[in-house]
């Protein structure tokens, strides 16, 4: 969607149409959540401090976000996506990947489907969307930004290099501003230069991710489109045969539960942003504690560590309590393939999780256990 929050505000408040509109926090430490195209001409962009935005455009109209309203309009837009394919992977309220391969026989080629989507969005919401049609997710995402607002950019397998090569490396999703600046300092400014640069130049910048970055610059991306998640959370819990009060035993039990939950998470190629625990005392009163982590993870050690920190804090506040149930709850799920170019999980940890998953799949869930789950 084009400047989604700001466009919704301009539509709902006609007096702001055609004027510079900023949606975001209005207090002194506020941040720009969305900027209309009229205000972008002054250099204002999302994630910019509001104070900076108002220095660039003092006459901008500032509006507090109305998330409930944006979610309502987003639901209308996603309903249109589902009119053409069930394979819709939402990235945010205003952006999604659609795999329309199975819809072509019924609805026409991908370009016709893209035109239909744009038309239906305009008819239904009076808002515009920009669409990228391409052989894979990476190129489609880049293409969707090339002709905003109200754009439609088509990239065929034969024209991938033609379209990508002249683009600034800053357009590569997942590169990040700081890394992008370092790449440009090495004289690499375009996709063409990035995909053809030798290891001697790229390895100091990207290390073991060098080939992945080079592939992305060449428009190579084999990630499938994962349909939106039906499952809101993944959990593992255990009711004990007898109430447990030993903190060491409880932590070992919780680590084992974290491992079970993580195994399910990885099987579905998901990551969790929110890690929580469920605690039930001997008198059946139940408590929950949770923590948000960044970036989202499916790493067993990380999740067990956070869960045990939450448990330790609760036990400190409730000394001597005996528990009849413990659980680990992973929520705010997202598809693991949405991570950027670079993994944040240490490679040895990923290999360990993979080895555990493979052994358990072949020999049973108790074939291997981490040492800290044994007490």
How would you describe this structure to a colleague?
This protein is of the alpha+beta class. Among the domains are: 4-65, MutS, DNA mismatch repair protein, domain I (3-Layer(aba) Sandwich), CATH 3.40.1170; 233-373, Dna Ligase, domain 1 (2-Layer Sandwich). Helices cover 42% and strands 20% of the residues. The strands form four sheets. A four-stranded antiparallel beta sheet has the order 8-11-9-10. Strands 2-1-3 form a three-stranded mixed beta sheet. α4 runs antiparallel to α6 and α13 (247-267) runs antiparallel to α14. The longest helix is centred in the last third of the chain and has 21 residues, at 247-267. The termini are far apart.
Instruction: Kindly report the name of the CATH homologous superfamily of the domain at 233-373.
Output: DNA polymerase, Y-family, little finger domain
**Gyration radius, rounded:** 24 Å
Low-confidence residue ranges: 343-349
- Please state the average pLDDT score: 88
Order of helices and strands: HEEHHEHEEHHEHEHHHHHEHEEHEH
Strands, total number: 11
Strand content: 15-25%
Q: Main sheet, how many strands, which sense, barrel?
A: 4 strands, antiparallel
Distance, first to last CA: 53 Å
In the CATH hierarchy, the architecture of the domain at 233-373 is 2-Layer Sandwich
Enumerate the strands of the largest sheet in spatial order, edge to edge or round the barrel. Answer: 8-11-9-10
Count of helical regions = 15
CATH fold naming of the domain at 233-373: Dna Ligase, domain 1
Helix vs. strand class: alpha+beta
**Which overall shape is indicated by the principal axes computed on the Cα atoms?**
globular
CATH class category name of the domain at 233-373: Alpha Beta
The helix content is 40-55%
């Amino acid at each position: 969607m084009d400047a989604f929050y700001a466009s919704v505000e301009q539509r709902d408040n006609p007096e702001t149409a055609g004027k510079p509109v900023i949606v975001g926090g209005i207090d002194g430490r506020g941040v720009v959540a969305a900027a209309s195209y009229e205000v972008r001409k002054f250099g204002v962009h999302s994630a910019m401090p509001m104070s900076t935005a108002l220095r660039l455009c003092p006459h901008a109209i500032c509006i507090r976000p109305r998330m409930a309203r944006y979610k309502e309009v987003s639901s209308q837009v996603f309903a249109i996506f589902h009119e053409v394919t069930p394979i819709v992977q939402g990235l945010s309220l205003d952006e999604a990947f659609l795999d329309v391969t199975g819809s072509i026989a019924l609805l026409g080629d991908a370009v016709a489907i893209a035109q239909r989507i744009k038309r239906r969005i305009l008819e239904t919401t009076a808002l515009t969307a920009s669409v990228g049609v391409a052989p894979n997710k990476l190129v489609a995402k880049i293409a969707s930004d090339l002709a905003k607002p109200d754009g439609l950019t088509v990239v065929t397998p034969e024209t991938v290099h033609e379209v990508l090569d002249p683009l600034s490396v800053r357009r590569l999703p997942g590169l990040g501003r700081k890394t992008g600046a370092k790449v440009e300092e090495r004289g690499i400014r375009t996709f063409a230069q990035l995909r053809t640069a030798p290891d001697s130049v790229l390895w100091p910048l990207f290390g073991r991710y060098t080939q992945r970055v080079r592939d992305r610059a060449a428009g190579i991306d084999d990630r499938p489109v994962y349909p939106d998640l039906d499952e809101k959370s993944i959990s593992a819990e255990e009711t004990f045969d007898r109430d447990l009060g030993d903190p060491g035993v409880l932590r070992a039990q919780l680590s084992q539960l974290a491992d079970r939950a993580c195994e399910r998470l990885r099987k579905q190629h998901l990551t969790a942003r929110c890690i929580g625990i469920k605690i039930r005392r001997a008198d059946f009163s139940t408590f929950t504690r949770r923590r948000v982590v960044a970036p989202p993870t499916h790493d067993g050690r990380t999740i067990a560590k956070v869960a045990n920190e939450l448990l330790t804090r609760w036990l400190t506040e409730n000394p001597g309590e005996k528990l009849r149930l413990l659980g680990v709850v992973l929520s705010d799920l997202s598809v693991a393939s949405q991570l950027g170019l670079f993994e944040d999980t240490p490679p040895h940890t990923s290999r360990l999780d993979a080895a555990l998953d493979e052994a358990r799949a072949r020999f049973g869930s108790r074939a291997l256990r981490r040492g800290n789950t044994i007490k």
